Amino acid sequence: MPAQLLSQPNPPPDPSHIPDSILSLRVDVPKNVLSSNELDSIRRFRRAADYIAAAMIFLKSNTLVEEPIKPDDIKHRLLGHWGTCPGLVLVYAHLNAIITRTNLNSLLVVGPGHGAPAILACLWLENSLATFWPKYTRDRQGLSALIRGFSVPGGFPSHINAETPGSIHEGGELGYALSVSFGAVMDKPDLVVCCVVGDGEAESGPTATAWHAYKYIDPAESGAVLPIVHVNGFKISERTIYGCMDDKELTALFVGYGYQPRFVEELNDIDQDLASSMQWALDEIHKIQKAARSGNPIVKPRWPVLILRTPKGWSTIKSLHGEYIEGSFRSHQVPLPEAKNDPEERKMLQAWLESYKPSEVLPNGEPSEEVLSIIPKEDKLKLGQKKEAYAAYEPIDVPAWIDHGVKKGTQESCMKVVGKFLNLVTHSNPTSFRIFSPDELVSNKLDAVLEDADSGRNFQWDPASRAKGGRVIEILSEHTCQGMLQGYTLTGRTGLFPSYEAFLGIVHTMMVQYSKFVKMAHETTWRQPVGSLNYLETSTWARQEHNGFSHQNPAFIGAVLDLKPSLARVYLPPDANCFLSTVAHCLRAKDYVNLMVGSKQPTPVWLSPEEADRHCIAGASIWKFASTDDGLEPDVVLVGIGVEVTFEVIAAAALLRKLVPQLRVRVVNVTDLMILGPQGSHPHALEDTDWDALFTGDGESDGKGRRYIHFNYHGYPVELKGLLFGRQGLERVTIEGYREEGTTTTALDMMLQNHTSRYHVAAAAIRGGAKVNKKVEVDAHEMISYVMHLAQKDREYIYANDPEGTFDVPKFD
Amino acid sequence: MPAQLLSQPNPPPDPSHIPDSILSLRVDVPKNVLSSNELDSIRRFRRAADYIAAAMIFLKSNTLVEEPIKPDDIKHRLLGHWGTCPGLVLVYAHLNAIITRTNLNSLLVVGPGHGAPAILACLWLENSLATFWPKYTRDRQGLSALIRGFSVPGGFPSHINAETPGSIHEGGELGYALSVSFGAVMDKPDLVVCCVVGDGEAESGPTATAWHAYKYIDPAESGAVLPIVHVNGFKISERTIYGCMDDKELTALFVGYGYQPRFVEELNDIDQDLASSMQWALDEIHKIQKAARSGNPIVKPRWPVLILRTPKGWSTIKSLHGEYIEGSFRSHQVPLPEAKNDPEERKMLQAWLESYKPSEVLPNGEPSEEVLSIIPKEDKLKLGQKKEAYAAYEPIDVPAWIDHGVKKGTQESCMKVVGKFLNLVTHSNPTSFRIFSPDELVSNKLDAVLEDADSGRNFQWDPASRAKGGRVIEILSEHTCQGMLQGYTLTGRTGLFPSYEAFLGIVHTMMVQYSKFVKMAHETTWRQPVGSLNYLETSTWARQEHNGFSHQNPAFIGAVLDLKPSLARVYLPPDANCFLSTVAHCLRAKDYVNLMVGSKQPTPVWLSPEEADRHCIAGASIWKFASTDDGLEPDVVLVGIGVEVTFEVIAAAALLRKLVPQLRVRVVNVTDLMILGPQGSHPHALEDTDWDALFTGDGESDGKGRRYIHFNYHGYPVELKGLLFGRQGLERVTIEGYREEGTTTTALDMMLQNHTSRYHVAAAAIRGGAKVNKKVEVDAHEMISYVMHLAQKDREYIYANDPEGTFDVPKFD
């Protein structure tokens, strides 16, 4: 480990007891790629960018430090993360150099997204900023605006986000840069995504497993990721794990992950070192790709990885008040926090900023010729202006689902039917549609997509599926699936993430971060729409047969409900035709987060394809066949939202017709959850009059008195309550849903345990009906007792006999 | 790779291009540990347990296959996961043998928690099942009950859970077994947790980084984890990554993670192989521990790991309908799915079950002497009866917080004050309290806990903090923090997980799984209470200075609201004294999930310690000092829930007093969110009369007319809406909260953007007040315009001047 890293007064880490022989697996390369002109330009580019990045954190005037810095030149609040900036600038400079030299088609994904100043500085230098944000012109005025405006209200925020040209990754929550990069290169054979992974981020679980993602990249059809692990040794206030691992440990680890590691750490000659290392890495990538594309794929190719060791906050002040700053966690954010008030710190700031010689590299606030010379000449090659990052949407070709609908009155597994349809979608979109799943396609009964070799799995390390061009990635890491889906989607393609219902929550915060990116993309003038994030939840709590309580968690619905209404879409299609319609719609829809929830077991097909089409367009409708008198003038409205709970509503209606024929029942199914919220709260929210037409009004305005409404909901009741809040007359509404009760048991027992069974629905209906219909009131109490007695008898039957577990349980007349 | 693994008709994986020299890092050990008696006993134990596990999946009668299996002997639904069972039995048998031989103090944590039949079979054999579940006696009747009852309603579920004696880990969602194991051994120097990690689970991110957890284990003070990676090559329907990695790749990977890998794969001699390997591993562990405990710690010790390669579903049928079953994903769940109806499958089942010779190892349904001979004699040594797993709670000594309260009227950072208090807690509980944090203690201003060496960090790979006995683990992996916290808590100690608010959602589903475990533990008669899972969220959306939109996500509150009311606790203490009171309470409370949300910036101390004490006990109270006329007979009630939003409520009340003195305002602060839900919905939910006393009644019963209530809430409004649903008179309630708007800006601007500012509160108050107070109605419209004009002026000021960002913004009179 180079001495420069050891700025803390600590002994160097003792050597691990791994034999030295492992060190022979480090890659060595001759360091001679750059001409002296290139070398000089790179160094000047770095000085210019480092200067701008540092100035952004501190200055609001005197932005070129042409005069001594006064307290008033310094911002009120010093915000930003310096520590990672010099490393990001270094990588950017070299990526520029290699693009200029080779016309490389590249994107940069920045794991340490806190380092926005570095990236914004580089984007300004290459004039990509002004392309999208006209006020940041590449001149004195634009530079001043950039420096002044950073991290203050109205300026660029302190993290990379959708406002940052060239970015495809929200820079905040750590762990996902690598999987996003892998998703981005899929089906883009010429693209090389350079991905910087910080050594803080490297500690996260999602990153730790994403290194395996190359095992799912077919070099014949897809591009490549060039990972650069930036080991600067420290997190916010502590050493990193990678920072404490020596060469032997890191070499072994990356060899094990399947890479050839190259350490880049010659601080005295870092530019030649990095340039040669990057060239070597690209050569390796091309070698692997060429072999695959000429029909002689290398088995288990060892892809390159660069381990870049530079000091944290490299080039800032060395120490302050006797404590190390450069090369320590103290340079993570603002190295001179009291610069505004402390004359000594201000003087140090002056010296630090002047050390970059801004007048030389930014004469009169414009980049010098030498700085410009390593920036790609063509805009389309510049990292900040790649169409892949902001205008790459390829519309998906979705076959007419209605031709593949199933017959009304049969029993069909929604997933079996959807799986066949998805198989068609893969054929219609051979290079722009993929499915990412944590090894659950078969279990989720979507395996029809695996039927053909060309829509099957693509797992390079497995001899059985290697290099078959399959459209399916199955890795038992929801994080990797989600990251790949994001990268694939943001670069213009369409994906689908099927999952066990209980486990999508694993990527809850990733989904939120992504939606933040899309929300901000909407607020720019220049980012084009992309496909939606499409989630398909099945194996729900209502039918967990091989599993139990741990597989019961419908909370992802709530996660989507928290999103901006402009993005959030939640569907619970009640049968196979409705599910087909929903999938077809979601795959075509742009910029949403679409969550579809349904059953994998055969369930009744209630609606014909045409009826399903109309039902899904409406979002909800009265199901006349299950209602009394087609649902006219009801005493109670019974609402099913979800497959099994709707089945129970229909069973309840049948039961009521027999037991309490005087009760007037309307059955409603809601397939689009978003119709429910108060008028105006969501684009899909029903107008009050439409809501009243469906669920009945509150009885005051129309003089009809109160009608009762019982919701039998698939999710947590609290979500539905929150959604309905603001609709009038909620006193007449009761709601049941999943209440965290369950085990390995039958489907009906799950309903009984969670009070969503036909009996509970019927009891709720009688309870409500009794309040508005005197004929019901007469023996309501007795009827409710009887219904709950039926429930008890069913429960006893189930516990005594462990029946098949379908919904066809015996009747007790 | 042994040929037996290659049951698929595929070529073996081609060798990777890693030099063969890496193979010298595999550990070799002589295979001669077991006497022939022991060997025989182990084999018989395995046959007995494998038999029982297989029978559990299929049989409801004829449970000892004493007669030909008839269709009626077979369960209606065949549920369960056979694939992992033989491997789990193998490990259990050998752990038994080594405990019997050495009195090892051990727990078993089973990553492949789907393999409940294996573990339940072993627990029955050692008579631990009957100890806790009397009906499963170790005799013919008990065995029959176990086999019949598995995976049917009322019996054991198909996954390991809290009902499984000896377990400390919910077996369903994969990825956490390893980090839980590391948490369990902390501060238990003699404990060795054997942790089985499946090769499916190994693909998950949380597992992929948890391998680094040894870097945080001080062998002087803590026990050890013996990880056994069970590579059976397949997931549900696909090969695993580890299953496709050859010896060189796996060796390099684990050496890189810091281990000495030993491959256990001699299928013809697996028992000697595993026994010798386990003995070697324990010897290595003891060597490392002995060195550390004698004051000569080994730097970077290389801990042992066993890589156990056995075929999936080993010992089941070889093939069916021409397809491989054993050694393939087809044995993942039920190898003979049609056994009930297909005579051929039934015959194969018979042969398979008889292959274990049940009459020999389970004569008359009781384990034979030979089987019993490798089970530990003493109950306290049996894996199913370890007190650590069910009765180990050590009450925590929490100092009287009130002595450390701060002065009313000052400004204090809640976190600074709490940090000092936590420092005291660490001193009072030197071996039973730990803090787990993703490198955010300093940033969250809780760094007082790091002030003393003995309460500081404990990071063995960092020379600066190594072996100092620190109570703090900081790893940038929320998953690892959470897993360690769970393991530490479930084995009787108390932990705290401070986090940035936005990032706790990363462990949302882990927290849910844990709460499922605790819920089921409550339902047993024998599991004793444990400490609570304590979360402290700070760096909230309301004050994100160095960060921005990506750091704004209060959704973890909603995650806790979805839990069973018996577990869920959410607190938003409004000042430092309230926070102290809350922390002290939570650390002492048992069996809850406690979420505390607060600010790290200095904010007013509204209440004296004594007042805070009363306020926190009540959960909410009227803040007379901020109300008109002490809050008597209000027109409107303004409710603050959360630090900054409460500040805005108070600022609004002050503004209203000046602008609209005729408006009668009551200010309420809610510190315990759970008081809000309808009476009876939660143990803390206020009785209706108390609710009315605080927030006013709906005006009908008391004839006082409607009063308006405006909630200014820290979280997503939809959560609060869901919580309030069911309280009467919600038409008079308005709610604002975080609405997914924000960037890097000032605190007041965050309030403005999310409509939680003083101006928005004031406008809501005037709007409500105008409906009930004619004197307010007169110029309400004008006043609202004026207030919103003030908001606009503040916003302009902020955007023009980027002020400090505190709440002391200029007034515009």
Automatic annotation (TrEMBL), chains A, B:
Its cofactor is thiamine diphosphate. Belongs to the XFP family. The keyword Protease does not apply. It holds the Pfam family XFP_N. It comes from the Eukaryota. The keyword GTP-binding does not apply. Residues 35-392 form the Xylulose 5-phosphate/Fructose 6-phosphate phosphoketolase N-terminal domain. This is Phosphoketolase. InterPro entries: THDP-binding, Transketo_C/PFOR_II, Xul5P/Fru6P_PKetolase, Xul5P/Fru6P_PKetolase_C, Xul5P/Fru6P_PKetolase_CS, Xul5P/Fru6P_PKetolase_N, Xul5P/Fru6P_PKetolase_ThDP_BS. Gene3D superfamilies: 3.40.50.920, 3.40.50.970. PROSITE patterns: PHOSPHOKETOLASE_1, PHOSPHOKETOLASE_2. Residues 600-802 form the Xylulose 5-phosphate/Fructose 6-phosphate phosphoketolase C-terminal domain. The lineage of its organism: Eukaryota, Fungi, Dikarya, Basidiomycota, Agaricomycotina. Keywords: Lyase, Thiamine pyrophosphate. It comes from Somion occarium.
